[in-house]
Amino acid sequence: MWFHRIINGLESSEDGDNAEVLKYTDHCPDGLCLNDSTHPQALLHSLKNKKMKEVMNVENIFTYDATWTPKGNNYNDLNVILKMIETFSI
Asked: Which residues contact 80 (CB under 8 A, 6 or more apart)?
């Protein structure tokens, strides 16, 4: 099983909206690093958008969205937790 998390808001943070995120990510201005197959962001992009989907059965991939905030992901928000329970309960 793969819980594929898509974190919204990281891209705009690289542009200075939230400089705090740069502590937690490899900076990749304008996506230029994606052309370098050895850069960590390029490796992650390939893993998430190609390799994992090639080897996993689609019924074992659970994709969900999270939003970056200045304090990180907001798992203290009850609505976020309830949505995750609803999405991933079998």
From this structure: 66, 73, 74
CB-based burial label for 24 (10 Å; 0-12, 13-18, 19+): exposed
Alpha carbons 38 and 70: distance in angstroms, whole number: 29
pLDDT in tens, the chain (90 residues): 888 888 877 665 455 556 666 666 666 666 667 778 888 878 888 999 899 999 999 988 888 887 777 766 666 667 777 777 787 776
Q: Report how far residue 61's alpha carbon sits from residue 65's, in angstroms, rounded to the nearest whole number.
A: 13
List of E strands, the chain:
2-8, 61-69, 72-73
pTM of the model as a whole: 0.61
The token pair that represents 86 in the structure block:
């609803």
